[in-house]
Each structure stands twice: as C-alpha cells, then as structure tokens.
User: Fold these one by one.
Assistant:
Number 1:
Amino acid sequence: MKKTDMYHVALGERSYDIRLQSGSLKNIGEAMRDLFPDAEHCMVISNTLVAPLYLDVVKESLEASLWQVFEHILPDGEHFKTLDTWSGIMDGLMDARLSRNEPIVALGGGVVGDMAGFAAACYRRGIPFVQVPTTLLAQVDSSVGGKTAVSHPHGKNMIGAFYQPKLVWIDPDVLQTLASNQLRAGLAEAIKYGAIWDASFFNQIERDAQKILALDDTSINQIILASCRYKAEIVMQDETEQGVRALLNLGHTFGHAIEAMTHYTAYLHGEGVAIGMCMAARLSEQLAYAPKGTEANMIKALQALELPVNPPEFTAIEWLDAMGHDKKNVGSHIRYVLLKKIGEAFIAEHVKNQDIERLIASYA
C-alpha cells in the first residue's frame, strides 16, 4: 500500500484531516463511512469534465460502503460559478432530501469545491461536506481553509461563507488526466506560498519545475503536502481572514480584476494570479518596499513554470474599477498584498490610486 501523508487542521469543533495518498480515490467510501457512521445518503457534486473520468470510481467506492448516492453534475468553467448554477445545486439537494447529517462530496476543481461547499453551508443551515479535489490548484489551495463562494458580475467570490469541510481527500494520481494549462495554473498557487512565506520553497519549485510539470511522483507529492501545510497553518491562525490570512491573497487583487475584466473566459484563475504576483512585485519595487530584482526573480520563476507574466491591456480606470469590487477591500479602500522580498509579504494599507496609475503606465 502506498504511503499516506496526513495533516490535521486544528480548528476546534471544525477540525479536519487532509489526507494525501496516490491511488486513494477508490477508498473514499470507506473513509466516509468511518467519518459518518450513521448517515445513509450522500450527494456527489461534480462537473461535465471530471464526472466522466472519476464519478464511477467514487460511486462504486461509496456504494461498496453502503452509501446511497445521489449525483449533481455542473457545467464546467469559471463563468458558471453563479447564483443560477448554485440554485440548481439547491434544487438537487431538495429533491434528494438529504438530512442534516448527510454529506456532500465535492469531486472536482476549485469551482466545484467552492460551489458545493457554499451549498453545504446553506442547505438546512449547514450539512457536512468532503473535498475530493481533482485539479492541482484545488489540491494545493482551494480545498483547504473553508472559503466557499459564487461569483457575481461585479466581482469574483463576492457571495459566500467560511465553512470548513469534514475531510480533504487528495489522490495525486488524478492529475494524470489534468490538462497542462490547468496543471501550470495550480503551480501558481503553490509558488505563492514560497513568495509570501518561504523563499527556499519558492526556489525549490523553480529549480524542480521540469520534474513537477512532468508529474514526477516525489516532486508533485512534496509540493502538494507542503502547500497544504502552509495553507493550514495560516488558516489555523486566522480562520476568517481578519489578519495574517489576507497574505494568501498575494497576486489576487490584480488577478481577480483580470478575470473579471475578461469575463472569466480568457484566463484560468492561476494564470491571473501569476500575472497578479508579477504586478505586485513591480509595484513593491516602485514603492521602494522591495529591492530591485524582485520582479525579475518572480518573472523568472513563473516562466520556468510556463505561466503568463504580462497583464492584458486595460486602462488604469478600468483596473481601479475592477479592483474596487474586490471582496478583500475595507470600505472603499483597496488592500494590496505586496512584497518586502521573495519570502516575505505584507498588507500595504497606503497604496494610492496614483501609484496604480503609474504601475499601469509602466506596461505601456
């Protein structure tokens, strides 16, 4: 049997385990039976891309452990992360009549996990859910920490709740069917932890880029486990993002604006974050927070991962308007996560609109 790595997210009564094991997808039913011994039904929420690949494996595992399984399949794509799609999930839950102790299984990437988690938070004022992430981005970031949401035309993830899963079940083998651009997008979130927290981890990802992109077992497992550990440690300090957890948004203020301005169809989330981290690095240099060369180091690492580094062309007014709708803002004040150096991030409270205008002008 392959080795199981486990990390415990200690949040009192909301605590849960992250379990990582290659080939473990077929064992999810037994794990859930141990976790919910008295439950009879569950609902697997997936999408049109993932379900044909892995839904049968998950259902067979669940049914072998005496689960009665309902399923709800979402359309695939960030632009379907809407209240209308979420409402369809709620209709499915109503039809299935799940009770308050019967769980949802989120089988998919970040969009599936976020929407299934938000549905779990709202249905009957809260039922349990389990994350089974199938993209690298979800495995290293979005499946951990309890952020659940849908997007709105005015901004990404504007409607949601902090609601922790009962288990995060990670099988790295599912990455073998992941599209290469999705793999690279996930690596943007992984290298983010190095940029804000640990320069050696940042350098390791850059150094091992080709092995990681080739899905070398040892390299990819190390990246996933370390990323989960970094994320969990921050979440345990600040579950609802009142302080240090906001550092995890490095690159996201710009990245979310890119996604919104391009209507969630031109860039994957991780691609937007990659560009956003480059923009944050340049702004950090321009404001003399970070030494010269910080942006160059960021660009070099992200290019090693074959990620985009140049922002799309929009006016400063368009950038500021899009970022003004970001959920991380305080009142009308836009909050930016910037760098003092690779490996040390901070929340910049005094960035002016003129600073952003100068930043955008520097790309002309």
Number 2:
Amino acid sequence: MAKARTAAKDSNPITRYVRDVRAELRKVTWPTREQAVNLTIVVTAVTVALSLFLGSFDFIFSRLVEFLIVTF
C-alpha cells in the first residue's frame, strides 16, 4: 500500500520536481551574513574598478578615432 501511494506521488512530475528541489536546497551550505556582506563588497569593488578601466579605454579610443577622422 505504501508503494502504491509513493508511486502515485512520483507520477506527478511537478510534485517530483518540487520534492527534488527541496532536497537539493537542504544540501546547500549557505553563507553567513558576514560572508554575504564581504562578498557583496568585493563584487561591487571589482565591478566599479572594471567599469572605470573599460570606461577609460572607451574614452581614449573614442578620442583617438575622433582625432583620426578630423585629421584625415
């Protein structure tokens, strides 16, 4: 009887999917609040640094192209 109930529950793919997702989420090692804050600061700092780096290259190359167009 128990197998019949389990088989009936497993026959629904949505129910099986939700059960599998919940089982996998229980296995996750979640970061502490301090770790999450530190990692957020690192990601923000790297994003700002890279945007400044790429923005400066964009500015330099756009000025170079503008100079070449105006000169020639």
